[in-house]
Automatic annotation (TrEMBL):
UniProt keyword annotations, A-Z: Aminotransferase, Pyridoxal phosphate, Transferase
Gene3D superfamilies: Aspartate Aminotransferase, domain 1, Type I PLP-dependent aspartate aminotransferase-like (Major domain)
Protein known as: Aminotransferase class III-fold pyridoxal phosphate-dependent enzyme
Keyword Cell membrane included in the entry's annotation: no
A Pfam family matched in the record: Aminotran_3
Similarity remark: Belongs to the class-III pyridoxal-phosphate-dependent aminotransferase family.
An annotated Gene Ontology molecular function: transaminase activity
Length: 458
């Protein structure tokens, strides 16, 4: 383990901010330039080996350089890799995907979660003939202009507006107010407000879109019965229920959150663990809705780089690996081991925190042992100044990459992959223990102003 207190800041002056994606410039420490990666480790250009707990923002579910994917790609290269057209492998991927995802009669591929959620809204509006979409505060659905509302702001959660709605707040500069007028933002876990909004606007609501577990504000699950309530109210009003399973899909279970919670949406959006690091995404759903998509119907969902052969080959290899017996038992063991360990270490150092996890993504809400129910609770309770100091120390002295990463008002979940072991988690917990010995807990004022910068979503 390195003891040098140096920043993770490889320079690349012609890349904006030195990174290919803005998120890779981590709060408090900046970017890292990687020279190699394997399993749960990355190596940086300072010669350090870092235990990775971001894992490609949750996408590298099998670990870096996963052998099943690498072997499938090497075999595929022998036949050429630069063609975009459909192959038998495309059909096999769709067939095996639809066999395990409860809502999926049919699948259309996309390139990113942003595309998947954008297209899902297009399908919903086309089949219902309606305009409005209900979304929940703190839920992030990609950098999608139509849904980048009430994600987070530097001022914190939105104030209540009229008829149960929250004040509409853009999640980034450059969003015209007209897009916000098509969004009905609500607090998470508030069934009464859902009913109120449908009573007022039900005839023009095309869909409700949500993360079944809100992992973008640090891991906040649905209250018992809440997903069932959404299923019932959307059915009653002939609106579509859309699960954004970009983060939960193939993580919480092979069939995702809909399998885990037993609530089946009309459409679902996939990315990240769908390809286990390969650039691929998808929209899946009931045939009645998916057949609205061209060339069967008239809704355009396409792209030049969609369904590239290597991405499809890699995703199929990943799906087959996820389907092996015992895979999800291993992930649940790691998830529970990490949750218990983080709770114990924080507790030993008298650091108040609520810690929970789903599918190997574990949120540690440092600052209060109270369980947050929504974005307002998270922002009120999270001790961002202390969490930032702790993260800087873990990153620069203890060689942990992304462990207990703070965003602008909430924690980014610690992410494990199938390549992690309980031994890797023990090592991380030991380093956390050492860091907390150096940095005793500093309370904050829960109702004070939010500090920090950057976006609070991933």
């Amino acid at each position: 383990m390195s003891t040098a207190h140096s920043p993770l800041n490889g320079t690349a002056p012609h890349l904006v901010g030195g990174v290919a994606a803005g998120w890779n410039s981590l709060s408090a420490v900046g970017p890292v330039r990687v020279t190699g990666a394997s399993g749960p480790y990355i190596r940086d250009d300072q010669g350090r080996e870092l235990l990775d707990f971001i894992m490609g923002w949750g996408s590298c579910f099998l670990g870096h350089d996963a052998p099943p994917i690498r072997e499938a790609l090497q075999k595929a290269l022998a036949g050429g890799f630069l063609y975009q057209y459909e192959t038998a492998t495309h059909g096999m991927l769709a067939e095996e995907f639809c066999a395990v995802v409860p809502c999926a009669d049919k699948l259309r591929l996309a390139n990113s979660g942003l595309e998947a959620t954008m297209y899902a809204l297009r399908i919903a509006r086309a089949v219902t003939g309606r305009r409005l979409v209900v979304k929940f505060e703190g839920h992030f659905h990609g950098l999608n202009d139509q849904l980048m509302w009430n994600v987070d702001t530097s001022e914190g959660p939105a104030a209540p507006g009229e008829n149960g709605l929250l004040q509409r707040l853009p999640g980034a500069p450059g969003l015209p107010d007209e897009f916000g007028e098509l969004v009905l933002p609500l607090p998470w876990n508030a069934p009464g407000l859902v009913d109120q909004v449908f009573a007022e606007h039900g005839d023009d609501i095309a869909a409700v879109i949500l993360e079944p577990v809100c992992l973008n504000i640090g891991c906040v699950g649905p209250e018992p019965g809440f997903l069932e309530h959404l299923r019932a109210v959307t059915t009653r009003h002939d609106a579509l229920l859309i699960f954004d399973e970009v983060l939960t899909g193939f993580r919480l279970a092979l069939g995702g959150a809909q399998e885990r919670f037993g609530v089946v949406p009309d459409l679902a959006c996939y990315g990240k663990a769908f390809g286990c690091g390969m650039p691929i995404a998808g929209i899946a759903g009931h045939a009645d809705f998916m057949d609205a998509v061209a060339p069967v119907g008239q809704v355009e969902v396409s792209g030049t780089n969609t369904g590239r052969y290597l991405s499809v080959v890699g995703a199929l290899a990943a799906l087959r690996e996820l389907s092996t017996p015992g895979f999800y038992e291993h992930i649940e063991q790691l998830n529970d081991y990490l949750v218990t360990g983080v709770r114990e270490v924080l507790g030993q150092h008298k650091v108040p925190a609520f810690v929970s996890g789903f599918g190997g993504r574990v949120g540690a809400h440092i600052g209060s042992s109270e369980r947050p129910r929504n974005m307002a609770d998270v922002a009120r309770l999270y001790n961002l100044p202390y969490a930032t100091e702790l993260f800087r120390l873990l990153s620069t002295k203890f060689d942990l990459y992304g462990f207990l990463l703070p965003l602008s008002f909430c924690p980014e979940p610690v992410t494990v992959s199938a390549a992690h072991t309980t031994g890797h988690i023990d090592e991380a917990l030991s380093r956390l223990d050492d860091a907390l010995t150096e940095l005793p807990y500093k309370p904050h004022e829960p109702d004070g102003p939010l500090l920090g910068g950057g976006r609070g979503w991933r």
